[in-house]
Write a structure and sequence with these properties.
The protein is an alpha+beta fold. The chain contains two helices and three strands, in the order H-E-E-E-H. The protein has two domains: 64 residues, Beta-Lactamase, CATH 3.30.450.20; 38 residues.
Amino acid sequence: MHPDDVAIIEKEVQLSTMSGYKNSGDAEYRIHNAAGEWRWIVSRGTRFSDISGNFLYFIGIARDITEQKQAEQEKRRLEEKAQITSRLAAVGEMLRALLMKSIIR
């Protein structure tokens, strides 16, 4: 597991095993796979308790969401690039207007 994710996951596990905890165990974290790559994983689980509400066990799944995370990052990058392009276009228009004013005078 990625060092930045360990504390978050430890806290979620600790909370989810406490008596009376109602949320399902959903978490996103990174793991280092056998090929040496960092992969994003989402785990979703359901907590099972005894009649008194004491934790018994979890049943859940883990799914690789690396491509989704990469697509989200690329979307953010393109949005930032579009904002910069828009700002540069506005500056270019202002410069053109100033140049036209000075030429006409």
